[in-house]
Write a structure and sequence with these properties.
The chain is an all-alpha fold and 338 residues long. The chain folds into two domains: 6-165, no CATH class; 224-319, Cytochrome Bc1 Complex, Chain D, domain 2 (Orthogonal Bundle). Helix content is 54%, strand content 1%. It contains 15 helices and two strands. It has a two-stranded antiparallel sheet with strand order 1-2. Helix 5 runs antiparallel to helix 6 (71-97) and helix 7 packs antiparallel against helix 8. It is elongated and about 80 Å long.
């Protein structure tokens, strides 16, 4: 999985860093993986230290105290550099051990590295400031502020990976959302509770369904196997239950389920969906595992399991050929044969 990402293959520097880290962490001893799992703990220290150093130096600059150096700011600078290096290393190991790829991972990783690079330059400027005096005050402060900005950007991207996009302001958007009138479907659902207006001997129109539904059950769902199932029927399921880990911005285990073209981006042997054979598809095998299984998808801590109707709809789409949004048929990329 390590070199299966197209972005990775196009980034020689990132490839070299991968090779270096795995050369020193490829020991079967699981302690390297344990170090990676300390990333959520370690990352808070450099953020706090860098922001504290930047704030102290900025306040001293505005106050005109540019001829003397702050011991507190210096401590925060060097502590942030050391802890930041450990956090970046642990984060890289965590992502690689869990096969985490995607735009969010890429930018979170490289903005953190940029922040550490700027902080290292700020440390050099700090040393030069001690040796050569106030001529290096402005470069030191500028590099420190840039590092603080980059670490905030990296932290924001990391939070979006864990909590989803716009998680901070989501409650405000929910509260300010205008009320909408009941939909026709909701009114129809309430219709059986109203007294009938037709004569007693008139026959009650029936809803054409393949499966009998109890009177207190929700409106019947068409059985997917009885009709053609399109990508438009399956895409909302993938976006709601799978896209957080296997979407456009994050691809855990190098798996992306939306958009449709991403599913069949690699050679057929690597497809998570086998067109025409749901039972042989990796996706089917994972979403049908019993609750509590460590490999079930989606995981218990990531969301509710799929309903039987949703699984049936996905299986029907796969068995019908996993046709794309515009009628495309899955084909192997150029240079590969199905």
């Amino acid at each position: 999985m390590l070199f299966s990402s197209p972005r990775l293959l196009d980034a020689p520097l990132e490839t070299l860093i991968h090779m270096f880290l795995f050369a020193i962490a490829s020991d079967p001893n699981p302690y390297w993986e344990v170090l990676g799992r300390f990333h959520p703990l370690l990352l808070h220290f450099p953020i706090a230290f860098i922001l504290a150093a930047a704030c102290i130096e900025l306040v001293r600059w505005l106050a005109g105290r540019r001829d003397t150096m702050s011991a507190s700011a210096g401590f925060c600078l060097w502590a942030g550099l050391v802890m930041g290096g450990l956090a970046v290393w642990a984060g890289w190991l965590l992502a690689d051990h869990n096969d985490m790829t995607g735009d969010d991972v890429f930018w979170h990783r490289w903005t953190a590295i940029a922040a550490m690079g700027l902080l290292a330059l700020a440390a050099v400027a700090w040393v030069l400031r001690r040796v050569k005096g106030r001529d290096w005050v402005a470069p030191h402060l500028g590099l420190l502020l840039l590092s603080a900005v980059m670490i905030c950007v990296s932290g924001h991207l990391g939070a979006e990976m864990v909590w989803g996009e716009d998680w901070v302001f989501e409650p405000l958007e929910t509260k300010s959302a205008p009320e909408v009138a009941p939909s026709p479907a909701a009114k129809e659902k309430q219709a059986p509770n109203t007294p009938p207006s037709q004569p007693a001997n008139a026959s009650t129109p029936s809803v054409s369904t393949d499966t009998p539904v109890a009177s207190n059950a929700p409106p019947p769902v068409a059985t997917p196997t009885d009709a053609a199932v399109s990508w438009a029927d399956v895409q909302p399921i993938f976006e709601q239950h799978c896209a957080k880990c296997h979407g456009k911005t994050r691809q855990k285990a190098d798996l992306q389920l939306v958009p449709w073209a991403a599913i069949f981006e690699f050679e057929p042997e690597a497809w998570a969906i086998t067109p025409g054979d749901a039972a042989a598809s990796w996706v089917h095998q994972r979403i049908t595992l019993p609750a509590g299984n460590e490999d079930v998808m989606p995981p218990e801590d990531k969301g509710d399991p799929l309903s039987a109707a949703q699984i049936a709809r996905i299986d029907a789409w796969i068995n019908q050929g996993a046709i794309g949004p515009d009628g495309q048929t899955p084909v192997a990329p150029k240079g590969n044969t199905p």
